[in-house]
Design goal:
It is a single chain. This protein has 469 residues and is mainly alpha-helical. It has two domains: 360 residues, Glycosyltransferase (Alpha/alpha barrel); 71 residues, no CATH class. The protein is 42% helix and 6% strand. Helix 9 runs antiparallel to helix 10. It is globular and about 65 Å long.
Length: 469
């Protein structure tokens, strides 16, 4: 049945032709967006500026740059060394210098994609991630309002995308920022200002972020000749927090995840969601692999034991019910089932079946996906990170046709400037904020996976050293 539904999704995509996930949707009525894109560039001082919908009318980015050519032929940009957007004749030397700077940066790495459209989407996604990342490593979800903060989860994926596309310095900077703001107990606050101060707005700590930072640290090390790309104490604190907080049943405590909901809003308030449990398993496996590679056998043994305990618990508590969001019979499905699929975990047929089941439950008439079943937000608006997560799972599992269909849908639903938004409404219009860094990162990882296999955290073997503790 799920294969028939997949074919239906492809048909819908063909007909359509165009923090971060939060249940707190600030928009009412048809969602819109404040800007279809940004201008700016790398270097110091760090600067970016939003392009208004009026300015974007008839405008296009100059190829492989963040310089906008306006409808009247002039260029809108922030010249190197400047802090404000200006409008200049395209013949102005500052325009050429800005375009060259962007292209040189792109050419220092790789731009994945097997078609011109996909490569164009990848180039724009890379340049947008660069615009969202300061030289201090603060990589924000987007550029304004409640998105203009660093979510450790999103930033971890930004680092992974930078690493996979040949930009190791940016990846290291992002991980270094996350190391600086980590709490002494190993956790992270939900989000941070670019200056590193935590945002205290009542949001519950999102426990999945611990696992994602560990995964990104291991993932980026695979593109840096195996060297750990973040301070070792950060890895120890994060992995030890997971290991010591697994309960007698092998699961972590109930907590918030990328849905940004408190446990009381879940179907089983007393136990964690798959959106918490799966990333923490990924993180423990990543930490154990880092420990093995870095020569820390006692840490490796401790985290391996914890990973095996959590793996068994996930299979028993979620797998027995088809991997729903909460570990209950007939539980709601959501996109977190992708966290148990490649490139986060080895291929598993039961997980593959659950992926197809989730797509059936989450599919919308516009060809996109909801974050979860019985979603409390707008039930007709698709979220691009979820679409990109399923695209990544398909690409990393070798299902190239399905992955390409999701990528085509994402490419077709960008803003007028080719930027990936957070949402797409029922009328196929980009909605909410654009760009969204998490979606950009997932698209880059998906396109990279289509060209060569992405590394998967190894399932650790039973350790031999004993932890004296």
């Amino acid at each position: 049945m799920w294969r028939r539904r997949a074919r239906l999704s492809v048909a819908l995509i063909t007909l359509a032709a165009v923090a971060t996930c939060s249940a707190r949707d600030p928009f009412s009525g048809p969602p819109g967006y404040e800007s279809p894109g940004l201008v700016g560039g790398g270097g110091w001082p760090y600067a970016q500026a939003a392009v208004s919908p009026e300015q974007a009318e008839g405008a296009r980015y100059i190829l492989n740059s963040s310089v906008l050519r306006l409808a009247d032929g002039r260029a809108m940009l922030i010249p190197h060394g400047g802090t404000e957007a200006v409008t200049l004749p395209v013949t102005d030397p500052r325009v050429g210098a800005a375009v060259k700077g962007d292209r040189d940066w792109l050419n220092s790495g790789t731009v994945p994609g097997g078609t011109l459209e996909h490569r164009g989407m990848a180039a724009r996604a890379l340049l947008d991630l660069r615009l969202l990342t300061t030289p201090t490593g603060a990589s924000t979800a987007s550029w304004y309002g409640m998105w203009n903060y660093v979510w450790p989860r999103d930033a971890a994926f930004h680092a992974a995308a930078f690493a996979a596309t040949g930009h190791p310095r940016e990846a290291r900077d992002v991980l270094a920022f996350l190391a600086r703001v980590q709490e002494p107990d190993g956790r992270w606050d939900t989000r941070y200002r670019p200056d590193g101060s935590a945002v205290d707005d009542g949001r519950a700590v999102q426990l999945d972020e611990i696992g994602w930072v560990l995964w990104a640290t291991w993932f980026t090390s695979r593109y840096a000749d195996g060297a750990t790309t973040a301070p070792w104490p950060m890895v120890q604190r994060a992995a030890d927090w997971i290991a010591r907080n697994l309960g007698p049943d092998g699961l972590p405590p109930a907590g918030s995840d990328y849905f940004e909901r408190r446990p009381s809003a879940e179907q089983d308030p007393d136990r964690p969601t798959l959106g918490v449990s799966a990333p923490l398993l990924v993180g423990l496996r990543a930490a154990a692999a880092l420990a093995q590679r870095s020569g820390h056998p006692v840490d490796e043994a401790r985290w391996t034991k914890a990973a095996q305990k959590l793996d068994q618990a996930i299979r028993r508590e979620y797998g027995a019910h088809g991997y729903p969001r909460s570990p209950i019979p007939n539980g709601n499905m959501d996109a977190s089932v992708t966290f148990l699929a490649p490139p986060f975990a080895p291929h598993d047929m039961s997980v593959e079946f659950a992926l197809g089941h989730a797509v059936e439950r989450l599919s919308l008439d516009n060809g996109g996906l909801l974050p979860g079943e019985n979603w409390p937000g707008n039930p007709t608006t698709a979220w691009t990170p979820e679409v990109a997560l399923f695209a990544l799972a398909d690409a990393a599992s070798g299902r190239t046709v399905q992955a390409a269909a999701w990528l085509d849908w994402l490419a077709a639903h960008r803003t007028s400037l080719g930027v990936l938004p957070e949402k797409v409404d029922a009328d196929h219009r980009p909605a909410s904020v654009a760009p969204l860094g998490w979606t950009a990162s997932l698209v880059l990882l998906t396109l990279t996976a289509g060209e060569h296999p992405l590394p998967i955290p190894p399932v650790p073997a039973t350790p031999t050293p004993e932890d004296p503790s």
